[in-house]
Amino acid sequence: MPASLCPRSGLFTGVFASVVVVLSSAGCFNSPDLNNLKCTTSAHCQNGYTCVVPPGLCELTVDAGGRDLLILFDGAVSFDGPRSEGTVSLVDSLGTTDLAAVVDASLALDVGLDAPNASGPEAAASLDTLSVSGSEVATDLPTASFIDSAPDRMPDTTSDSTIFAADIAPPGPEVGPDLPSVKPRGASCSLATECADGFCADGYCCDSTCKGTCQACDIAGAVGKCTALAKGAAPHTGHGACTASDVTCAGSCDGASGSCSYPPAATACGTASCTGTTYQPAGTCSSGACTMPATQTCSANQTCSANACACLSPKLTCSAVCIDPQSDPKNCGACGHDCMGGACVQGQCQPVPVAGNLDVGGGQMFGLDSQYVYYMSKGTYPAVSSYRIAKTSVNGAGTLLSTGCSAAVIGGTLFQCPNRGIGSSCDMNTCSTTMTTLPGSGQALPFGSPTPQNYTIMTTDPAYTSSTFSWYDTSNNLVATYLEGFPIEGNVIEGSVIDSWSAGTSVYWLEALTDSAGAFKEILAYKVDATTSARIQLAGAIPDTDIVIADVNPQSVLFWDRTVPGNIYRVPLPFGVGSAAPVVLLSQVSTSAITESSSFVYWVDTGNTMYKCAPSNCQSTTVIVTSGRTISGRLYQDDTFLYWGERTPGQIVRMAK
Known about the structure:
about 40% strand
């Protein structure tokens, strides 16, 4: 060592993977900041350096076979034996294992040790020579002194330690780069060895390897911290991709675990196709891949059409079975259209007798409720009897209620011929013994659907200047009244109620307008509710003179012109069309019965053929439902069936809608 070097104070210390001696100094040279040399593996060190654990420092690799030897001088000391001996390990960085040895080295240099229990540093003699001796030294380990042939100093640093490089004879060139400086998290980097934590990811020193598909270390606001990408984000460059074989199955980051999230397994993907009689169903997604199921060969009576195995026309595929919709009673006209016990003829359900064996001329219904069909049988008016029978019966016999004419029923009360006359009522269980004449002197109104809770009587004053509607409960107590006046407006007289019905809580009527000379002007349609007494105009400008109400149902009020053939008009409920003219549902037809369900209008012509049509376009959608039926009276309906009476043979029937 040159004489210009200052003497050092300290104790020799430590066992390292290379020959390392450390001396504490307030000395003459600056030293590197040892905190910047920390490591856990040699991968954290630059080329030419080895990680020594403990203490977890990157040390310059030393070749004990004549290459430069790194000597660090520090203030700590550790001895295996007496204070005059220490353990030294030599490692050949070139892999020549016979150059490694463990020796009990006596410190030939007078280091001025304290007494055995002393702990503080002492001033050392000149470090120009340092001898190591012992009988256990390897044969090719030089026994010469450690000669400092040149002041091979490491870069200046700010610690209190000084780093020297010493040569073992024969002297040779210095090995290894300058000790590295390391970067904190968030600093830009190209190699992991540049970073204090040993991780370089996405161009920044990071807290982990951060190699997950949906992880990144370059997210704004969190640079240097491995962070899961936001939900739905695409992976960053170099992290792979949320791969998919079908665009429908493509994934994206889940926003939590740093992994990809894919559509549910039930998600349809791919394309269904037909090749002759072979059907390829569409696939389903599975972790980004579209899995196509096995192909299917259509059965002998099927072909592959519109990407499905289908029955050959005119058959239909219903529940994977080929059926004939023209005759299948469970799939009549369409899959799932059940005739509920009736036959299927040309795609239309046919009637089933509920009550049979009635006298010729009998079989006319006058009521329907949730359990029973009410009808008249035997003879012609007034020599008729009234019955009821369960709606579910098939060709059964009804129960006699009364030996008189009946026209309506509310609950357990039977109304005997109130239509076009005041009539009477009775409890249907005691009709044979007790009859009550209805109050007033007017006309009891026929019932529409839904069946009213109270019956209505209309009276008109002798001068035809007004009509009064009075609602009564089944005990004949007055519930409400409404007065409809017929004022003179210029030369037009409102007046003359020409027809009226009762349904639900409302009364519906037609009212004719004439001029002061009595000439016909037009017909208006109204309704009034018993609970509000507020009159609503349903339609106006009806030009036919001989028009009456044909049916009241929850969907509409239907009027017909009794001129044969004539028009059928429809007014939608609940508010009609105001003062506008109603729609002509059917023109120039001869009709004996009509009603409307939630889907179709059903009507019967005078030739005993029943038709149905869509109310939005009845003229062009009419189809024959059944024919050759001697239908008598009105059509009734519930949610599932139509009901009516027939004269020949005398019976009551139901038909699935």
